Amino acid sequence: MEPFGIAKVEDGTQLKLAATMDIRAAEPLLNSVQEALSAGGGKIVIEASSVDRLSTPCVQVLIGALQHMEQNGIPFVLKSPSDAFVTAFDDLGLFSYLMKWPVQT
User: Fold this and answer.
1) CATH number for 33
2) Element (H, E) at 34
């Protein structure tokens, strides 16, 4: 499994998602989200342009993380979500939920 990239960006922290987000990626994704949150300062940018496959467990991790950010006033944005990323949410009946989040193209 390829690692997730975490980097400081101008206005916060960016978490670059891997191409293959299968069940094996769920726990490392959770750890990476926690690391990005602990970096503090500014918004969390979740860069999803390279996602080719997104499993239900990874969707669950992302939903939990983004709900946490919403509830705690932590600004975030989904950057360039790939077609596969959007399709995974749609296949699970969560497209309208996805569309409530801020998206940057």
Assistant:
1) 3.30.750.24
2) helix 26-39
Q: What is the reported pTM?
A: 0.92
- Bridge partners (DSSP) of residue 8 are 13
Total domains in the chain come to 1
Amino acid at 47: E
pLDDT at 7 over 80: yes
Extract the tokens encoding 77. 């944005």
| CA 63 to chain CA mean position, Å | 8
Beta strands 76-79; 43-47: pairing state: parallel
Any idea what the Cα angle at residue 35 is, between residues 29 and 38, rounded to 5°? 145
User: Span 51-65, mean pLDDT?
Assistant: 97
- State how far the Cα of 76 lies from the Cα of 43, in Å rounded to an integer: 5
Domain of 16 in residue numbering reads as 5-104
